[in-house]
Design goal:
Blueprint: H1 4-30, E1 31-34, E2 37-40, E3 43-45, H2 46-57, E4 60-62, E5 71-73, H3 82-95, E6 98-102, E7 108-113, H4 117-120, E8 123-125, E9 139-145, H5 151-158, E10 168-172, E11 177-183, H6 184-199, E12 204-210, H7 216-232, E13 241-244, E14 250-256, H8 257-270, E15 275-280, H9 287-301, E16 309-313, E17 318-324, H10 325-339, E18 348-353, H11 359-371, E19 381-385, E20 400-403, E21 417-422, E22 427-432, H12 434-447, E23 453-481, E24 484-490, E25 510-516, E26 520-537, E27 540-544, E28 549-564, E29 569-590, E30 594-606, E31 619-631, E32 635-652, E33 667-687, H13 693-705
Parallel strand pairs: 4-7, 8-9, 19-21
Antiparallel strand pairs: 1-2, 3-5, 6-7, 9-11, 10-11, 12-14, 13-14, 15-17, 16-17, 18-22, 19-20, 21-22, 23-24, 23-26, 23-27, 23-33, 25-26, 28-29, 29-30, 30-31, 32-33
Helix pairs in contact: 2-3, 7-8, 9-10
Length: 721
Amino acid sequence: MKTDPIIRSRCFRVICLIGLLTALMIGSHTSHASAQGTTLTGSVPITRVLDTASAKLGITIRYDPAVLRQSVTIRSPEPLSDDELWRELNDALRGIEFTTVRRETPGSYEVVALRSASSLAYIERDTQKESSRFPRPGYRAVLLATFPLSPSAAVSLVQPLTSPNSGKVVALADSGEILLADLSPRIAIMEETIELARTSEVEIAIESIPVPSGRAIEFAAAIKQLSDRQRSAGGPPLRGDIAGSVDGRSVTIVAPRDEIGSWKNLAEHVWPVSLETDQYFVPGFDSESLRAVLEEAVQARTPDQDEISIYANVYTGSVTITAPSEVHEMLRGLVDELGHLPPGARRHTERLPIRHRIASEITEQLTDLLAANPEPVDSGRLRASDDAAPEGNSDSSADTEVSTPGPAQGINPAQGALLTTDEATNSILVTGTPAEVLSIRNLADQLDTPVSQVMLEVLLVSLSDSETLDLGIELEKLEVGGNTLFRLSSLFGLGTDAAAATLPGAGSGLTGVILDPGEFSVLIRALETVNEGRSTSMPRVLVANAQEAEFNSVVQQPILSTNASNVVATTSFGGFEDAGTTITVSPQILAGEQLNLDYSVTLSTFVGDSSDPSLPPPRQQNQLSSSITIPDSHTVAVGGIELDTIGRAKSRVPLIGRVPWLGELFTNRSRSRSRTRFYVFIRASIYEDSLFEQLRYTSDILAGEASVPTGWPVVEPRVIR
């Protein structure tokens, strides 16, 4: 039994050798790899081909075996090289609607369905060079620069080369590139085609084609669609591009010069109607009136006006029309009829409503403005009248004839426009030719603008300060000797009497009295008076721009008048003398939120009683007037007056009053000082809004302070049950 291990070992070796020979025999029927290539024979599972290609090319291929269950039959008389093996693999995958796409890592690939390959393929740039040691995938996505070709032109060029179901070409207009996604052989052909078009030297031309008004985009799209149909039918692709203009009146072709004719031929097939552009002008008609007449005629002749465009030039008085030739023939006849109309037949009356100004002022301004133009643009004449007058009264002396500026049109000088003010409706009636009426309407519209208003607040401040000081001593001595009475005194009218039996009445200030009735008296009095006063006045007035506002607040003092004759003198009422505050302001709004003010401020007051009933009392008057520029809504000091008065008085006994120290007993002194100041402040606020919102806001505030109802509805809560 010692031979059993040896026998078992030999048997095991024989079994392994038989298995190896069997595997080699099976493999010899499917593939044979050698240094010269790979041989594939018979029906081979697609997964086996993928594994063989991965091993031979040294690449990584991801696939789902559960999806790839098909087998392929490859018969080749000679061994396949690595490139041929990769090409046969991609052809086999394409036959079962699959392909290979590159992954982000070089040398890594994935098998995907052909219908979704465009979204799964790694996007390459034409500047990125694939390593030569790795094969290109069966399906590629490439970003390709097209300059100097436009992306849309490049797309049109290579679109016929794409695969019907799996190819994709997208223009990236902003970047100047296009995205190509297709099978690798087709990508190579498209790259060569674009490169050839980029390097070929062609002259690029730009031309515009007039189209029906507003249909430019639709027209360009139709031409592009017709070009695509021509290419899909087997015709050569057109190079270049076409786009609609912004105004919708034309399309612009950008293409090689030798292709412009082809684009125009397509345009004629898209819109076969032949359009012509012509200019129309009738003396005595403005462009808008002529346009209305011609447009009405076109509507009556051609209900469908999509291809017709009408443009009125207000500066030349002409109308430009793009329309078919038969429409132009009709319009030329109409224009000839209008040109032969008599001047009187063209005249009509139009009412011009004036919304923001007074109609009579606008009429006066129009007359002055038009009269200041000695050489008008046209030969029209204007007659302005404040009273309503019929057209037949053109010879009235009350009418004023002035020239009317307007479009360059030949108007009969014998005719003229009549301006009449209708004060009841605040409007102007204009009778004249359409050109004259248009000229006056344009001028009236420029003059009829909202007038800004200015809220003026004038603050008048009067300050007064006064100070007085009185200091005096009175001495009096009485002596009686027999029948003789002696008096020695130093009196200044302070109120002492040595002969009095009682003390004098108490006065103002500090008073000291020593009295020995019948003998002597001594009186000392000291008084200081200080007064401070302040008076303010702030009138407020709303005034229109460039108008004068006046505010008066005065006191009227009646006076008498005496008439004397040889027989008798009579006294009667002689009128009034005024004293108070008078303010006159005229604002002018400037640019930059500034105002120019011409103002005059007068402040007067009666300062005493009249010396005679027939004479007015004395009056003091302070006045400021000037022209200034101030900012909007700022309070500024525009001026003021300051009066300062100082007075000193001393009463004393001669000689002895000059003796130092002793002289003070025989002296009475007083000192006074008064200071009066008057200031003027002005604040001007511009109200420019046409809805008067600022004025309403200010009025509401003042009405609330004065408890005046504003008339606004009051919202009150209600309980709804």
